[in-house]
Specification:
With 123 residues, this protein is of the alpha+beta class. The protein is built from 4 helices and 6 strands. It has helices spanning 4-20, 68-71, 81-84, 100-119, and strands at residues 27-31, 35-43, 48-57, 62-66, 87-88, 92-95. The chain has a 6-stranded antiparallel β-sheet. A hairpin with a 4-residue loop joins β2 (35-43) and β3 (48-57). α1 runs parallel beside α4 (100-119). It is globular, with a radius of gyration of 14 Å. The relative contact order is 0.19.
Amino acid sequence: MKTQTADFSIIFARLRAILQEHASKFLVTADTTDEYCLEIKYSAKFKKGFPVAWVKSSKSYVSFHFMPIYFAPSLQKVLSSGLKARMQGKSCFNFKVVDEKVFEELRQLTAKGFEVSKKAGVV
């Protein structure tokens, strides 16, 4: 039987891998065993840089923060009930278990979100 810590480390690794697919387009400003962060150096729209997506492990869950879903609310309209149930606030998803179907949806959403944000001049 896996411990909660072991489960969270697996979840963290899976969510981190989703962001790593896009790391070459951003600055990696955190890469530890419990935090991975991608930042944009400069946004023409906002005239500054900022964290655009990150994964953080805590005691209770692993969170996946994804700002493009905040910038493009239309992305929220296509979320499955499984992914939507994990959404906290406007741009965060919390996970306590591995869910392959939801992770795949999140992987696709991440690619689409970065694409939409780029076209809008946000990232």
